[in-house]
Design goal:
By secondary structure, the protein is mainly beta. Helices cover 14% and strands 39% of the residues. It has one domain: Pnp Oxidase, Chain A (Roll). The protein is built from 5 helices and 14 strands. A 7-stranded antiparallel β-sheet has the order 3-2-6-9-10-5-4, covered by helices on one side. The longest helix is centred in the middle third of the chain and has 9 residues. 30% of the residues are buried.
Length: 198
């Protein structure tokens, strides 16, 4: 099949776009509001975008607490959502007011960061401490202001649990990161294969 992506005339019950760009890692973004309340939310539009220096991004549909807090305080932390933490991650996806500490709501432990103020999720084996760089507002279909934005941050610190390091490499099968697919579907990375570049 082919469909016009602007008109979105796919004829299916659900838009297939997010089911086609998969798997997407889930960045669990923690921020602090100006009065110190922890905000924690999962973003499946998340990824690394540069290695020299290290940058990550997350994309928000609507101006949510994570975006606002990162912009106002200049900092955020991204912990990776893993298979063992899937239920807690799902609890933090609910819409609650900015006065609610989602880390406490999900029964998670805030671990202090080294270089930024927002805490990381102690139970997650991987976390990136980030300094907010900028927000890119995406346009709507007709060029008018859209509802989505990309938030970019430079990674200034990385936490890796020693239990997932084997030899000189991080063993992703020990991390078991979960990924967002389409619809209500997720996947877990517990098997890998290697290719040698020509």
């Amino acid at each position: 099949m082919f469909y016009d992506a602007v008109a979105n005339t796919h004829g299916l019950k659900w838009d297939p776009f997010k089911a086609l760009v998969t798997p997407r890692p889930i960045g669990w973004i923690s921020t602090l509001c100006k009065n110190g309340v922890v905000n924690l939310a999962p973003y499946s539009f998340f990824n690394a975008v540069s290695t020299d220096p290290h940058f990550v991004m997350f994309s928000s549909g609507g101006r949510k607490d994570s975006q606002r807090n990162a912009e106002e305080t200049g900092e955020f932390v991204c912990s990776l959502a893993t298979y063992d933490l899937r239920d807690a991650m799902n609890r933090t996806s609910q819409h609650v007011g900015p006065e609610v500490d989602e880390m406490a709501l999900a029964g998670l432990t805030p671990a202090p960061s080294k270089l930024v103020a927002p805490p990381r999720v102690a139970e997650s084996p991987i976390a990136f401490e980030c300094r907010y760089w900028r927000t890119i507002d995406l346009p709507g279909l007709d060029g008018s202001p859209g509802t989505h934005a990309i938030v970019l941050g430079q990674v200034v610190g990385v936490h890796i649990d020693d239990s997932v390091i084997v030899g000189d490499k991080v063993d992703v099968t020990k991390v078991k990161p979960i990924a967002r697919l389409g619809y209500g579907d997720y996947a877990v990375i517990n098997e890998v294969f290697e290719l040698t570049r020509p």
